[in-house]
Amino acid sequence: MNQKKLIGLVILIVGLVLLYFGFNQANSAVGEIGEAITGKYSDETMAYLIAGLIASVVGLFTVLKK
């Protein structure tokens, strides 16, 4: 495994961890109450979800690129 693929794998793992934290925060009691009142997720939850999605896509692309 070359260095680029290894870096891509690390980025992919970090992205998946961020997505996990984002989904956990979105489904927590506080997150659901906040969503029920405001109709949207908190800024922190959205940051985790967006950063996790971007990192996962970039990491996956880097790992799969030949």
Automatic annotation (TrEMBL):
Spell out where the chain crosses the membrane: 47-64
Q: Does the record bear Transmembrane in its keywords?
A: yes
User: InterPro entries given for it?
Assistant: DUF3185
Entry keyword set:
Membrane, Transmembrane, Transmembrane helix
Q: What is this protein called?
A: DUF3185 family protein
> Organism source for this protein?
Paraglaciecola hydrolytica
